[in-house]
C-alpha cells in the first residue's frame, strides 16, 4: 500500500498530536521538575529523517517525524530495514507484530524515549541506543503508554478518514536476501543525514562487510542485509 505525500504529512501531524497528548502530557510535570521551563515541539519534516534533538538556548525538545519515513512504513517491501521494526520483533513490543500502525505508534515512543533519556542524563556521545534508552523504551511499552499511543493514533486517523493499515508485515527471508548480494556489488545504506555507500567485500551469514566509497572512503561497515540497497556502478 502507498500513501500520498499530503496524507503522510497529515498523518505526521497526528503523530505529533499523539506524542503531545498521550506521551508528553502525563510526563511534563516530572520533566519540568528535572529541568524547569522545558517545552516540547513536534513537527513534520519533508524528508525521511526522524529524530529528537534538544535546543538548550530555548530549553526546548524537538521531535521531527519525516514525511517520507511515514510513506515508507506504508510499503511492506521498504520496512525491513527500519530499526523500529527490528525493535518490535526482537523485544516483543505489541506482541511482536509488525504492522504500519504499530511501526508509527512505536516511532512516537522511540523518539519520546530519547527525550526521557536526555532528561535523565543518560544519552552520551557515541552511545545513544544504550541500555538506559532501552530500559526507558521497555517501560513505555510495559506501562501501557505505547498501547495508549497506538490506540489514540488509530482513532484519530480513522476520524480523519485515513485509517492506518494494521495487517501483519511478515519478516523478510534473510537467506533469499543474502542470495541477491555478491562481493563487488555497490551498495547504499542508512537514511537522512546518515546515508552511506560502499562496495561489498565479504558476504557473511546475515550481514555484509562493506568498504566505504566516496565520502565514506577509508571506513568499513558490517551491515545487516535488510538495510542494503543497490547502487548503480
Characterize the structure shown.
This protein has 2 domains: 5-159, no CATH class; 174-230, Roll (SH3 type barrels). The protein has 7 helices and 8 strands. It has helices at residues 5-34, 67-72, 83-91, 100-119, 131-142, 145-159, 174-178, and strands at 39-45, 51-55, 60-66, 186-189, 196-203, 207-212, 220-224, 229-230. The strands form 2 sheets. It has a 5-stranded antiparallel β-sheet with strand order 7-6-5-4-8, with no helix packed on it. It has a 3-stranded mixed β-sheet with strand order 1-3-2. Helix 4 crosses helix 6. The protein is of the alpha+beta class and 233 residues long. A hairpin with a 3-residue loop joins strand 5 and strand 6. This is SprT-like domain-containing protein. It comes from Marinobacter panjinensis.
Number of domains: 2
Order of strands, widest sheet: 7-6-5-4-8
User: Can you write the helix and strand succession as a string?
Assistant: HEEEHHHHHHEEEEE
Coarse structural class: alpha+beta
The global form is globular
Radius of gyration (CA) equals 18 Å
Tally of helical segments: 7
Q: Characterize the largest beta sheet: strand count, sense, and whether it forms a barrel.
A: 5 strands, antiparallel
Let me know the average pLDDT.
Answer: 91
Low-confidence stretches: none
Helicity range: 40-55%
Number of strands: 8
Termini separation: 30 Å
> Approximately what portion of the residues adopt beta-strand conformation?
15-25%
